[in-house]
Every structure is written in C-alpha cells, then in structure tokens.
Amino acid sequence: MRNQTRIGISSLIFNLDKALKICEDNKSINHIEIGIDNIFDCDILKKYKEKIKNLNLSVGIHLPMELNPCEDIEFIKQKWIEYIILLNKNLNFLDISYYNMHLGYVITNRLKKNKEKYLNNIVNFFEEISLKEKNLPITIENTYTKGGDISNVGSCVEDFTYILDCNDNISFCYDSGHDLICPSNYSLLRNKIKVVHLSDNNGMEDEHLGILNGKLRECDLQEILRLNPEFIVLEMKFEYIESSLQVLKKNYPK
C-alpha cells in the first residue's frame, strides 16, 4: 500500500461520540467515514468540528442508502441531486475527502429488460451534478443483490466499467463484504480505486464482522491491500476494530 494510505473507521451520527473515542485511543486511525441521512445532521456534525480537527482526521461522507442515481422519475432524480449539492454546501466547515454512494435500485423485471437504460440514467445523474458542482469528489461502491422484486445496481464489475468509462471524475470504492456476497473481478478497476471498505461475513449476510472472522482469507486481504487505496475504512462493528487493526499491521507492516 502507498505510504499515505489513511486508515479509518465508519460511523453514523448517533454513535459518533464512541467512534471519535476509538480514534482518540488509537493513533493509527486517521480517517473517519460518517453516514449522513438528513441535512439537519450537518448541524449536529458541526459540534464535532474541533474534535475532528484536533484528532487530525480526514473525513469521508457516506450518502443515504435510499439515494437512487438510476432513478427514472425526473422530479425525484432532481431532488436527489439537490440534496447532494445542499449537503455539500452545509458541510463546508469540513474538508470532505469524498462522498460515497451506491448506484441505486430498480424493479427487477425492468432492470433485466433494459439494464443499459438505468446505467445511462446513472451517467446522466453524475453529469448533472458536475454541471452544478464542479470537482465534487464522488466514489461509487459495489454492493450486492439477492433477487426479489427490487434489485440493486452495482453488483458486478461491468456496471462500474460502463459508468467510469463515461466519467473520469468519479472514483471507485471497493467493499470486501459486499464482494463476498456477490463476487466480481473488481481488480479490473484498480486504477480507479480510492477507498476500500474492509469487513468480513459468511458470504450470505452483510454482517460487518472483523477481518478474518468470516469467509475472507489472509491471502484475500493481502490482495486487497495491493489495490493501493488512498483510504481503508474498517466498516465493521466497533467491537472488531482493535483486532482488525492488529491483522492489518501484520499484513501491512510499516
């Protein structure tokens, strides 16, 4: 991994106090990714500005899971774009390293019939954001889908190559836990990877276990570390943070 890779943890607003205490107690953590669901969360986050600064933490923002870049209803799509622009404006008191998001979801039968249409919706979504807010740092994350009436877009590498080929300003976030559930050859995107979400699971449920507590093998971890990301986020239950940091140190000695 590159020397400047920053090691972080993930947090939501409600457990930010506990997350920052973990960062304070462990100096190897110098990044935090915070999930923001509502604009008013920005006012809550502002109260932590000095604490984040004093801990020398870089900050990433995970946008709401409900956000749907492949939205086919124009009115709703525009509201999501407005949300992202307004959120960025309200977070101007922080130097945000990236905004991370999933690619959205579609009624399964419609997606099967015309996937390219929804991928083009996503391309257009990011083009419209770029026109309104230049240089907004966005990462898009692989996810998983299990079928049913609604399917997630972004559970295979082809979805991302299509989108990233159309937009040079977007980066990729590789999620190891999601890849365990819906495997794909994301190493093809290594030149686009900015963020890695590290967690483990049983290959069926997104359990957010610590590293090597599920199906992830040590050789898999070493391959992930060779992706050379700018940020590694331990996206797992807090109880696994310390043991996972020890595994990281073993596989990535300074």
Walk me through the structure:
The protein has one domain (6-207, 235-243): Divalent-metal-dependent TIM barrel enzymes (TIM Barrel), CATH 3.20.20. The protein has ten helices and ten strands. The chain has helices at residues 16-25, 41-46, 49-54, 74-90, 108-113, 115-132, 157-164, 176-181, 218-225, 241-251, and strands at 6-12, 31-35, 58-62, 96-101, 105-107, 138-141, 150-152, 170-175, 193-198, 231-234. Strands 1-2-3-4-6-8-9-10 form an eight-stranded parallel barrel. A two-stranded antiparallel ribbon has the order 5-7. Strand 8 (170-175), helix 8 and strand 9 (193-198) form a beta-alpha-beta unit. Helix 4 (74-90) packs parallel to helix 6 (115-132). The mean pLDDT is 95.
Structure described in brief:
This protein is α/β, with parallel strands linked by helices. The protein is 38% helix and 19% strand.
- Trace the largest sheet across and list its strands: 1-2-3-4-6-8-9-10
* Spatial separation of the terminal alpha carbons: 10 Å
SS summary, helix count:
10
For the record, the count of structural domains works out to 1
Judged by helices, strands and strand pairing, the structural class is alpha/beta
Main beta sheet strand tally, sense and closure:
8 strands, parallel, barrel
**Uncertain residue segments:** none
**Assigned CATH class:** Alpha Beta
The radius of gyration is: 18 Å
Look at the structure and name the CATH superfamily: Divalent-metal-dependent TIM barrel enzymes
CATH topology: TIM Barrel
